[in-house]
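Message: Study each token:
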Amino acid sequence: MSWTKREIVQNAFEEVGLASYAFDLQPEQFQAGLRRLDNMMATWNSRGLRIGYPLADNPGDSDLDQDATVTDEAIEAIVSNLAVRLAPMMGKTVSPDTKATARSSYMALLSRRSTIPERLIDVNAVPAGQGTKYWRFNGDPFLQQEDRGLTVGPDATLDFES
């Protein structure tokens, strides 16, 4: 199921206690919720947690009815963390259950989306071993550094200017 930004903001307001069946949210409240949602997603993005949320180039260009394009596994983390951010704006406090859900769902999302960084061995400190032919490496008894070239992150591109 594809969630729109409006549905995420509305669910976050419901988590705060402003359910749509009892309160009619004003357009200004939806826009404020959308700004908080965009800010939260930009913060997550800057921390390396990229879940496919479309960030607008300008704050005024964000659309409430745009698809959020996030997976279903991320919805609970987004809604509960947004509710924690929206509550002070509305003069409300969130329940301890909502805070616990926000934290645990964010940590679960973070653990599912994180990857273990690849590390190179410090070859100047590791002996090559007994079977190594030292004459192949100019008599150096340590492992040789392999040339890895240029690398970029999984979500980056490398552009060359001519």
